[in-house]
Amino acid sequence: MTSSTHRFRELHQTGLFVMPNPWDLGTTRLLAARGFSALATTSWGLAFSLGRSDYQVTREELVAHTAMIAGAVDLPINVDAERLFPNEPGGVATTVRMLAEAGAAGCSIEDSMPADRTIDPVEVAAEAVAIAAEAARETGLVLTARAENAFYGIGDIDETIARLQAYVAAGAEVAYAPGLTDANEIARVVNEVPAPVNVLTRANGPSVKELAALGVRRVSTGGGLCRIAIAAVEEALDDLLDGSAPQIGASPQ
After folding, report:
1. What is the pLDDT of residues 67-105, one digit of tens each?
2. What sign does the CA torsion over 163, 164, 168, 174 have?
3. Could you tell me whether strands 106-110 and 77-79 are parallel, antiparallel, or unpaired per DSSP bridges?
4. Assessment of whether the complete model's pTM goes beyond 0.90
């Protein structure tokens, strides 16, 4: 176990910490300079930076991106690793080991099939979590298991909780259901799932302070910061195209 993984694991013990998601070297250094205690990659942001859609990044590209991010700052880095590339050589376990070698302190595994917006049967997903958990124990990484059913509007909060309970039983150290925005549902997850809980910030969800009061341990931004940056660029481009001549750029550089 490296000092980075040790620090990352300690962050989950008490209180709440915010773990924003940079998508390139510049945003990584910017967020580190603002004093956050850990950072996470974003699969959506990485794909955008490469001119692709989400889930179109190769395992080799993700590992190289992880090495770049982890090498740029002295902070624990959690990797949004989608499904951990089960169809690549060595599958899920090899992906976990590759991310550990690249300098990651943690990684996540999700149970969705984005191509057709479906969710794996819980038994199938839990088996994949167990494989990832064994490799995570070998390397010291903190494994986060994601229940995506709420994100895709499939099932209800009872299913989300049952999935997260199964994933924790299979060896995941952190539970994460990115589709949740209702405070009562988040509180149920915190109270009924025996693991630290990560919540994705959403415009219609509780504030960070409210999440802390609910007992949430970790808050991340996913692709949100990248989308905010893109929206600002698009607004400036609209002004350019309609002749508004915006004052683009805060300095002459």
Report:
1. 999 999 999 999 999 999 999 999 999 999 999 999 999
2. positive
3. parallel
4. yes
What order of strands is seen across the sheet that includes strand 142-146? Answer: 17-19, 218-220, 197-200, 174-176, 142-146, 106-110, 77-79, 39-40
For residues 22 and 41, the answer to whether their CB atoms sit within 8 Å is yes
How far apart CA 165 and CA 184 sit, in angstroms, is 18
Question: What H or E segment, with its residue span, contains residue 97?
Answer: helix 91-101
The CA distance from 195 to 64, in Å, is: 30
> CA 110, CA 130: separation in Å to the nearest integer?
12
In the chain the domains, ranked by start, together with CATH numbers, are: 3-239 (3.20.20.60)
Quick one: how far is CA 161 from the chain centroid? 19
- Tokens representing 165 are 């309970």
What is the four-CA torsion angle of 163, 37, 132, 140, rounded to 10 degrees? Answer: -140
